[in-house]
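Convert to structure. Protein one:
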Amino acid sequence: MTNIVNLRQARKTKARTDKAKLADENRARFGRTKAQRHADDMEEQRRKTLLEGARRDRGEEK
């Protein structure tokens, strides 16, 4: 025998799990301390500086 599924309940269950997944992603993305954000900003600045320092000049200035 097959299992009978109530589509309304299945949609609500799926919506709840999707909402919980989005909340977890947002917690990971935005739920950081000020020190962690500052450290990330400093790391990004270091990477940009390193990349800019390794850039080759074309010989012409625009």
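Protein two, convert as well:
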Amino acid sequence: MKRIQLSILLTITAYSMIFAQMGINTSTPLSTLDINAKNSTGTSASADGILIPRVDRQRAQNMSGTPVSTMVYINSIATGSPTGTAVNIDTIGYYYYNGTSWIKLNPSVNIYTSDGTLSNFRSITTNGNSLNFVNGTSNVGINMSETNGGFSANGSTRGTLTLSAGTNSIDTYVDNANAAQMNASGTTSKFSIGTTNTTPLGLKTNGTEKLTMLSNGNVGIGTTAPNTALELASGTPNSSGLRFTNLTSASPITAGQALGVDGAGNIVTVANPSPTNVNTSSVNGTTEASFNVNDLVAAVTSQSINIPAGGKALFINFMLGVDYINNPSGSGTAYYEARLYIDGAATDCYMRTQEIGISANAFFSISTIKFLAAGNHTIDVRMQRTFNNGTASGANMLCTPISMSFNASYLN
């Protein structure tokens, strides 16, 4: 039997030397060694294939002078140890020799069992599927479709996305207390949110944009087209929408200018009003000397007043009560008038009463407002008989004052 096997081996060897290729179950080998299955189809139960030498770990570990690419099947790791050339032999399976150690064929090393280092750029095509990293109830996912891509970080208590550089971080999170926040921490000197083109920056709530910043720096609250550095549209007629919580009508008055609005609603400064002062000039008395009144010359009761720069509205009030003493010639019942004069010119303010007999009383009262320019002015009330009504012209009526008050006041 051994002789027959040797003959077959010699025949195969000779054949391979002639043709430099050898085939088993084929007369037309396509490579150095081309082995075809004896039964490549059908229902035959006989085994086809190559049976690789089977050794245990100890045997592989003790081999010496092993050529590179030698392949064995480790059928047991109960012997030997994972050291030396057998450092990688830790499971039953196929191994090949790389000149230094036995290497597992198709090892099950991946990101689930071992760490590793990418040697080059890698691209993962998910074919429309999401990529999720799950740890209990928390997960990080890259969710993609043909038109949308998203990144999510979910947890049972909080979902957080953190971007870090050195000691600085930006945290964006939503927690189970319904708080959504974006915070910067560390030693960063600025947290900037904005655009790098002329697109406006908007902030919205409840689905509606409430605050807008244009590329020119104008900020609008309640408007998306602010025309000034800050424009506030309250949406309520006659309400500015602006409130100074800590500055109210009860706050102390200090120096400075007051605020007002112009016709377009712009806030402007206006001069603080000066404190209101009342300046009064007056003459009054109950012991004034008696005086004569006739139809030819007017008796005068006067006072002087100085109006400051800018002019003022003058409030004038005159009251005079007299007693007619005598009975002028003609014994008529004449009319007597008290008229207001300013700087010697008669005004349209006067009062007339009719004399009804000796020892009769008469009262004259004048109240008016006149605007006077700055400077000194003389204000007087003149008495005169305007209708003789039977009284002789030029005859005097002696008048004795009962009471008198003459006030001229302005506000500044």
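The chain has a mean pLDDT of 85. The longest helix spans residues 2-19.
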